[in-house]
Amino acid sequence: MHPQPSLRSTHAYGTPRNLLVYDRWGAAGRPVILLHGLCYDRTMWWPVAADLGGSCAAVAVDLPGHGQSAPRDEYCLDRLTHDLAMLISRLDLRRAPILVGHAEAARVAEAFAVKYATHSVITVQGTGLDDVPEPYRQFAVARPDQSLAEAYRQRLLPRRATATMQVDLGDGFPHLRDPAAFATLLRNVR
Known about the structure:
By secondary structure, the protein is α/β, with parallel strands linked by helices. It has helices at about 45-50, 75-90, 105-115, 135, 145-155, 175, 180-185; strands at about 10-15, 20-25, 30-35, 55-60, 100, 120-125, 165-170.
């Protein structure tokens, strides 16, 4: 008999004006915080997070204005990282997390690592579903919103250097091309 992956639980943190909605798998092991790119939501991480849940505490967050998280009047990078730090603190993870940022969320992960304890930052840049198997494409559905995208892009530039280990996994959706391999990579980050 094979062990079943951990079940996902959905939670909300904050007040109605700064509400962050997130999914969580597992409670033990290295925490892995998964941040989606602009116009996506936390569901893009479900396949890899389900695989991680048995050995890591995986958390996929809807960034403000995305998915079920509340929109903001302003998307200031300092505020985003502060709110993310408050959420992570509330989770009582007990270890510095690995932050995984897709596309523009890589900048959020990098800025977080400058101010808060972080084990490492993993970035995945760009788009391109050509190599993603058909069953996983449903997890990478963009919901374009030009005003939201523009508000984020204005505040997420320029890039800052981080003092943590950083791995750039290139273009596309490697976590959807092969979720099990991506989960193995995250479990093996030292």
